[in-house]
Amino acid sequence: MNLFSLSLRNIRHRLFLSFLTVCAIGATVAFIVLFSLFRDSVEQGAEKGYGPFDLVLGAQGSETQLVLNTFYHIGAPTGNIPASVLDQARSDSGVDKAYAMTTGDNYNGFPVVGIDPEYFLTRYGDRTLKEGALYAKTGEAVVGSHVAQTLSLHVGDTFTGAHGLVAEEGHHSGEEETGGHTGEGETEEHSHEGFLYTVTGILPVLNTPDDRAVFTTVDYAWAVHELQGEDREITAVLVKPSTLLGAHNLKQTLDGNSGVQAAYTSKAVSDVVNAVDQGSQLVEILAGLCVLLAAITILLSLIAAAGERTKDAGLLRLLGKPKSYVWMTLISEGMILTLTGLAAGFLAGHLAALIFREVLFAKAGVRINPYLWNADHGWIAAGTIAIGLLASLIPAFRMYRLHPLALFKS
Question: Which family does it belong to (predicted)?
Answer without folding.
Answer: Belongs to the ABC-4 integral membrane protein family. HrtB subfamily.
